[in-house]
């Protein structure tokens, strides 16, 4: 239920056409030259950060560049617990990139990192499998995490 297009988020949509153009342009520019590899969108509550994140996820999903998305929610127990983030992102990356999915499945089978600390999970379920991704894909992979403070 944490993905941007989950049925649990049916009421959420992206930005209206012609709105929030500056922050969206900043994200698109960053994706094309990801230095640093993290884009942090911050602002006051209610200023549209989730709407922008949804638009970004939708945009890159349409272009087959969305690796994963996780939208936290204080209203839903499974989406307000950080213990679900890494395994959920790994699952989505595995679906988006079958060769990465094989590496994730092998890591789970051989090392069972699901009960390990976050650092170990991140390394074994995301970093190491993604490092096997073919470099022929010159397009960046985008992962959207929204409302981490929830």
TrEMBL record:
SUPFAM superfamilies: P-loop containing nucleoside triphosphate hydrolases. Signal peptide: none annotated. The keyword Repeat applies. Keywords: Repeat. InterPro entries: NPHP3-like_N (IPR056884), P-loop_NTPase (IPR027417). Residues 27-150 form the Nephrocystin 3-like N-terminal domain. This is Nephrocystin 3-like N-terminal domain-containing protein. It comes from Rickenella mellea.
């Amino acid at each position: 239920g944490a993905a941007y297009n989950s049925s649990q988020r049916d009421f959420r949509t992206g930005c209206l056409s012609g709105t929030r153009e500056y922050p969206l342009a900043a994200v698109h520019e960053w994706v094309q030259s990801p230095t640093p590899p993290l884009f942090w969108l911050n602002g006051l509550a209610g200023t549209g950060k989730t709407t922008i994140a949804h638009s970004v996820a939708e945009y890159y999903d349409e272009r087959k560049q969305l690796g994963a998305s996780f939208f936290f929610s204080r209203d839903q127990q499974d989406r307000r617990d950080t213990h679900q983030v890494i395994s959920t992102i790994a699952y989505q990356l595995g679906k988006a990139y079958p060769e990465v999915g094989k590496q994730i499945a092998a890591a789970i089978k051989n090392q069972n990192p699901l009960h390990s600390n976050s650092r170990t999970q991140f390394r074994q379920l995301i970093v190491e499998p993604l490092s096997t991704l073919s470099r022929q894909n010159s397009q960046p992979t985008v992962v959207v995490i929204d409302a981490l403070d929830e």
